[in-house]
Amino acid sequence: MTDSTVAPAPGVSASPLAPEWLSLPSDVNALRGQEWARDVVRHPAGELAVDGVSVHHLAEEFGTPLFVVSEADFRARAVEFRDRFNEAFAPVCGGVDVYYAGKSFLCTEVARWVLSEGLRLDTCSGGELLVAQRAGVPGELLGLHGNNKSAAEIRRALQMGVGRIVADSLPEIELINTLAAEQGVRAKVMLRLTPGVHAHTHEFIATAHEDQKFGLSLMAGGNNSDRNPAGQNVAEPSPAEQAVLAAHAAEHLELLGIHCHIGSNIFDAEGFALAARRLLAFSAQMRDVHGIELAEVDLGGGYGIAYTEADTPRPTAEIAQAMAEVVASECASLGLVPPRISIEPGRAIVGPSTFTLYEVGTIKTIQVDLEQGHGATAPRRYVSVDGGMSDNPRQVLYEADYSVTLANRASHAAPVLSRVVGKHCESGDIVVRDAYLPDDVTAGDLLAVPATGAYCWSLASNYNYVPRPPVVAVKDGAARIIVRGETDDDLLSRDPGA
Ligand SMILES: *Cc1c(COP(=O)(O)O)cnc(C)c1O
Known about the structure:
Layout: E1 40-42, E2 48-50, E3 53-54, H1 55-62, E4 66-70, H2 71-93, E5 96-101, H3 108-116, E6 120-123, H4 126-135, E7 142-144, H5 151-159, E8 164-167, H6 170-183, E9 187-194, E10 197-201, E11 203-206, E12 216-217, H7 239-249, E13 253-259, E14 263-266, H8 270-290, E15 296-298, H9 316-334, E16 340-343, H10 347-350, E17 354-369, E18 377-385, H11 394-398, E19 405-406, E20 415-421, E21 430-438, E22 446-450, E23 471-475, E24 478-483, H12 488-492
Parallel strand pairs: 4-23, 5-6, 5-16, 6-7, 7-8, 8-9, 9-12, 9-13, 10-14, 13-15, 15-16, 18-20
Antiparallel strand pairs: 1-2, 2-3, 4-17, 10-11, 17-18, 17-22, 19-22, 20-21, 23-24
Helix pairs in contact: 2-9, 3-4, 5-6, 6-7, 8-9
The structure holds pyridoxal-5'-phosphate.
């Protein structure tokens, strides 16, 4: 990898349309390591390769668009979470259980990687449970989430002997109890609580009442307004407390503990720490007031990753250490036996392990009016690729930024501010909003967009009847399909008239 901090060549200047965070690269061929799987390199001849397989081979064999996962990188990140969190928490509570959040990206192969590295698996639907079952994941290593689980999903979880169902509401506690009774089993449940901490990337917001659909509030009158429309009866126990009492009393439930998940792509430990403090204080209160011990606390997922040069996630070890210190000191001051801790990273394991390979098609340069430019304009180059919002809807959904590089060759041309767009009938169909690509990018070139492992394939759609791309795993110089791409027959298979 080349150093990109050297001054750009004379005569090349930043575009006035570029966002502030985007720097003009001195070398458009350089890969910033933080955004890429560890075994992605640019060969001296100029082409990108992952674990010994070059991108033109991948494009020839599997076509584009293509999701390319480095198996070694995925496994390394899974092991990193397992080991750094276990090291940090060993002196506090013996260690942690790490659940990979399957909703970020799941197929049977990935479920097996997770299992073989000693992690567990979180699911949030009957379909995700089915993938886990087909992959042979033992039920006791699975969790099931969801704010509106169907009876069928809960039944499936109970039949599979799922290790924990994370109950999200008071009616659901009753439903799980009823269905467990029907099956003659005792369901293991955690309770999803809302600690009043929302976090996203660099900020977190601490509130009392949370205005969102998940979980059971720690605040009296928190989210049972059907019973307490004016929110005045402060003597009524919080939904969280009611849930603990209900789950503890339910004959067919075993209450394991409490859970929270405060947000996504979080870069600092403070949000996690505050949520942990609030959950531990609640645990101590349940012990003191009701004599109920909550043996487990899950602190959720949401660990941030680098999508662009603007992102600087903290090392896993640092976050783990910070969280372990908070749990240790909080338990000491509450006189609480430290609970078993679990976490649920998704994005931080699979996100950076994967890039998407596209082929360039149409290129247009638009003269864009500059704000207060008094008639001045600046060029923006639109580079169209053969995928788009159907394989990566994150720009459209969350205004997520990505980076991109020319993948099939190196270039000595000047960097030009470019926008990588898809092929869909939608002007918002953007993959990479702002990036510098070399001036000589042309139709037929390959572009690689890094950090697309999480919430891209799993959120993919068939918009415009565009088939969803395959996913290949690369390992030790060989690539293999782990999810095949859709065919015309797949696209038509549900239309009885086709
Ligand atoms: C989405 C989710 C996760 C994983 O979040 P990441 O940002 O992918 O780490 C973990 N737990 C729960 C309950 C979730 O909903």
